[in-house]
């Protein structure tokens, strides 16, 4: 079976029974599974040979296994419950989590890019457990990615699952494919944003979001 194209997301989402206080949760599991680690290990060994290295060298003996296991870990998000609560207080200001750590793999070079994400939303009927914003970032970051798509996927998914009045996502990241090779622009950061609803359409709300994230645009 041909694997999904880059950026394709296969999720299993099960709505859990509603709990006390109107709390609801969506159990989210990423569909990537069934890695052939033996085949991956052989491929890494072949790569070492192609690069003029001897995989039987004692210092490299476990390298193919470690590399295969590392990529499997980097490409597998942890399952979680997307827990939401009724907005009983009628809160109508921005909810924002800043400086969420982000690490992902560039789909062009399979080298890491890493940085921080700022994720916010303007509530409507429901509010979200704050730790879940970081979980959603991880859900899409643990993949072969480009930063632009990652930013949009986080915003689109939150807009779809939470149905807020608006969503904003900013990601600032350093790409090792730029720092360690090619232009070798160490320390340079790429900034991307994705806005939904009132954070996109209302200038005042948009300005407030960028001011709070210190990414004024």
From TrEMBL:
GO cellular-component term (any): cytoplasm
Protein name: GTP cyclohydrolase 1
GTP cyclohydrolase I domain segment(s): 41-213
Family per similarity comment: Belongs to the GTP cyclohydrolase I family.
Quaternary structure note: Homopolymer.
Pfam family, one: GTP_cyclohydroI
Taxonomic lineage: Bacteria, Bacillati, Actinomycetota, Actinomycetes, Pseudonocardiales
The organism of origin for this protein: Saccharopolyspora terrae
BP-aspect Gene Ontology terms: one-carbon metabolic process; tetrahydrobiopterin biosynthetic process; tetrahydrofolate biosynthetic process
């Amino acid at each position: 079976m041909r694997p999904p194209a880059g950026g394709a997301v296969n999720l299993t989402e099960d709505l859990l029974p509603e709990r006390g206080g109107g709390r609801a949760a969506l159990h989210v599991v990423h569909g990537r599974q069934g890695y052939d680690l033996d085949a991956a290990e052989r491929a890494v060994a072949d790569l070492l040979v192609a690069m003029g290295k001897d995989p039987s060298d004692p210092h490299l003996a476990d390298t193919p296994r470690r590399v295969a296991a590392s990529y499997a870990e980097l490409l597998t998000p942890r399952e979680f419950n997307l827990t939401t609560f009724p907005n009983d207080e009628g809160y109508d200001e921005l909810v924002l989590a800043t400086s969420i750590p982000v690490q992902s793999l560039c789909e062009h070079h399979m080298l890491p890019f890493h940085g921080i994400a700022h994720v916010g939303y303007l509530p409507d009927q429901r509010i979200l457990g704050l730790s879940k914003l970081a979980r959603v970032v991880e859900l899409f970051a643990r993949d072969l990615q480009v930063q632009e798509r990652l930013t949009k996927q986080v915003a689109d998914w939150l807009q779809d699952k939470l149905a807020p009045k608006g969503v904003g996502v900013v990601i600032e990241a350093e790409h090792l494919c730029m720092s360690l090779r090619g232009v070798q622009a160490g320390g340079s950061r790429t900034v991307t944003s994705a806005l939904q609803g009132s954070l996109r359409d209302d200038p005042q709300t948009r300005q407030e979001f960028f001011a709070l994230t210190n990414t004024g645009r």
